[in-house]
Design goal:
- The complex is a heterodimer.
- In chain A, the strands form three sheets. Chain A has a six-stranded mixed β-sheet with strand order 6-7-8-3-9-10, sandwiched between helices.
- Chain A is elongated, with a radius of gyration of 25 Å.
- Chain A is built from twelve helices and 14 strands.
- The longest helix of chain A has 14 residues, at about 105-120.
- Chain A is about 35% helix and about 30% strand.
- By secondary structure, chain B is mainly α.
- The radius of gyration of chain B is 19 Å and the shape is globular.
- Chain B has one domain.
- Chain B contains 15 helices and no strands.
- The chains are: A alpha/beta, B mainly alpha.
Chain lengths: ~325, ~250
């Protein structure tokens, strides 16, 4: 388990990381979200022992990163931001170097390098010099380095940055598979990635955690979560509203679109947690003989939740952008 | 093998490999050998001296190293910082000093190799006359130690910046100060204003003063301690610089 408590990092007078605490257990994939400059990389650099925190504690399994860094680092794999590599080495040379520093020797090292190369699809460039590689290959070479020693804990800073869609898909499924046995923290800008890979998500903004929960929980913070959208043809809007109002679980009704013969309405439930509203709307539509094109329950949108949480207050007020979302951390 | 030794060995091996996979190593060695030859033979009138010694050869080393050693050492840490690999290296299970020592030893070994390749000089004087090979060996030992001291200074300046050029210039300036402190013309000038005690104190921090002992064939423990102490001090300071860089 990775356990971070009250982590603080100051750069000058700026609190880059401000009292961040969380834990990640084995079998968990924690998505670390946040706008640029929110403190994601700084937090990860502290967890991996690259920069010391100003205060707080970092425990990697049974080892404390601050008092026993070598043993803590042995159990960690780390992919730094922008995947740095020694450009004067071949991929094979680089991986062997990393494996040796990880304490792997002889046949054990060969096997580790071989399996990391296979996992990260590097066979075709293994004897190529690093500075001749494309960005995707560089990224995967650095990723291979982080999993060489089959670490219990993995910290990946933007592991899919610069990859093409196919490679992104591969890396995501790799993370998901490894996440079954390991504790993984990875940062990303890509929200769909979070939904696809993470078991839990933390959103960090201006150094502090502003949301912490499963992707589904975060999506549920959206004001439209649980509302039912229905598009009906050839029925006047007023009639539709009239009938829908009679539903016992329906709260307010909003018009989304009223164009030509099709009317789209959004029906909000009285209680967000109950899920019966869509069935009731469907039954009502059938009873009333409405011809409906569309009927579905909105399960919230992570990007809007993200925007609402991380936009500076001043921007929110002046632009009136995004839904108003209240956050309980 | 002890874990620390193994880590130092692994890092040094990579660093040494990095010299030889780029043309830097070969260019450096060729330039070093040509300059050493030019300084020794035409510039110092090696043959006209009619001496069976390598004084003419060693005399120039503190000036020769002034530019060549910073060229070798300038990339040690600045390159790590520029590429971001410092983050990779220092999040591996190695300590900061293992990385510093490993990188330093690799470069020192490289300089030692370049110095060893001047062996034709040794053969020449032995062919032409009967030199005191003990004195020559002392000269080589002193030269190697002096190269190490210059290199440690370069190691320190390369940790300060991510630019190799800045690192090189800083290193040349610092090394120049280390030479000049013992340069007789400067000392003569300073003697107009300062007492001989002060002059001696200034001269004693000069690599020139300590190296000249070796050239005469004298291995004084004080001189060895000076060079090793200077190396230790610079590497220790490198560690402090890197730690403060990490701390932000």
């Amino acid at each position: 388990m990775i356990k971070i408590e009250n982590l603080v990092k100051l750069f000058g007078s700026k609190r880059a990381v401000d009292d961040v605490s969380f834990t990640v257990g084995k079998g968990e994939v924690l998505g670390f979200l946040g706008p640029n400059g929110a403190g994601k990389s700084t937090t990860m650099r502290m967890i991996t022992g690259f920069i010391p925190p100003d205060s707080g504690s970092i425990r990697i399994g049974e080892f404390d990163m601050l008092t026993d860094p070598i043993r803590a680092k042995q159990t960690l794999g780390y992919l730094p931001e922008n995947a740095p590599l020694y450009t004067d080495m071949t991929v094979y040379g680089f991986l062997n170097f990393a494996a040796e520093l990880r304490g792997l020797r002889g046949a054990e090292r060969k096997k580790a390098v071989q399996s990391a190369v296979e996992t990260c699809f590097l066979e075709s460039v293994i004897h190529q010099n690093v500075d001749t590689l494309s960005k995707g290959f560089r990224h995967r070479a650095c990723l291979a380095q982080s999993i060489l020693h089959d670490p219990e804990y993995l910290i990946l800073d933007e592991p899919t940055d610069g990859l093409d869609p196919n490679q992104k898909h591969e890396v995501r499924s790799l993370i998901r598979n490894m996440g079954k046995r390991k504790a993984i923290i990875f940062s990303t800008h890509i929200l769909e990635e979070v939904l696809e890979v993470c078991t839990r998500t933390i959103i960090i903004d201006r150094g502090a955690i502003v949301a912490n929960g499963s992707p589904a929980q975060l999506k549920a913070m959206h004001p439209d979560f649980g509302s039912v959208l229905i598009t009906v043809r050839n029925v006047p809007e007023a009639d539709l509203r009239e009938k829908l109002k009679t539903l016992p679980t329906a709260a307010q009704i909003e018009t989304v679109k009223n164009k030509e013969e099709a009317v789209t309405l959004r029906v909000y439930p009285k209680d967000k947690k109950s899920s019966g509203l869509s069935v009731q709307v469907a039954e009502l539509a059938i009873q009333s003989g409405w011809r409906f094109d569309e009927l579905h329950t909105d399960d919230g949108r992570l990007d809007e939740v993200f925007r609402a949480i991380t936009l500076p207050d001043t921007v929110k007020k002046s632009k009136k952008e995004g839904p108003v979302i209240t956050v309980n951390v | 093998m002890n874990l620390a030794v193994r880590n130092i060995y692994t890092i040094a091996k990579r660093e040494l490999g990095a010299y030889f996979t780029s043309p830097v190593a070969y260019v450096f060695i060729v330039i070093f050998l040509i300059l050493a030859g030019v300084f020794t033979f035409p510039l110092s009138d090696f043959f006209a001296r009619n001496e069976a010694s390598l004084n003419a050869f060693f005399f120039w080393h503190c000036w020769l190293y002034l530019f060549l050693v910073p060229a070798v050492g300038m990339r040690l840490w600045s390159e790590e910082r520029r590429l971001g690999t410092i983050e990779l290296l220092l999040t591996m299970p190695v300590t900061g000093w293992q990385a510093i020592v490993g990188k330093f030893l690799a470069s020192w070994l490289f300089l030692g190799l370049a110095l060893a390749l001047t062996f034709p000089m040794l053969i020449t004087v032995n062919y032409l006359g009967n030199p005191d090979n003990g004195v020559i060996f002392c000269g080589y030992l002193g030269s190697f130690l002096m190269a190490g001291a210059y290199l440690a200074v370069s190691c320190l300046t390369s940790a300060i910046t991510r630019s190799q050029v800045v690192s090189f210039i800083l290193s040349v300036v610092l090394c120049l100060a280390l030479v000049m402190a013992g340069w007789p013309p400067l000392n003569d000038m300073l003697s107009q204003w300062f007492s001989s005690g002060v002059i001696n104190a200034i001269a004693s921090i000069s690599v020139m003063t300590h190296f000249s002992q070796f050239q005469r064939g004298i291995v004084d423990s004080a001189d060895i301690v000076f060079f090793l102490g200077l190396i230790f001090f610079c590497l220790f300071t490198t560690g402090v610089v890197i730690r403060s860089y990490r701390a932000g």
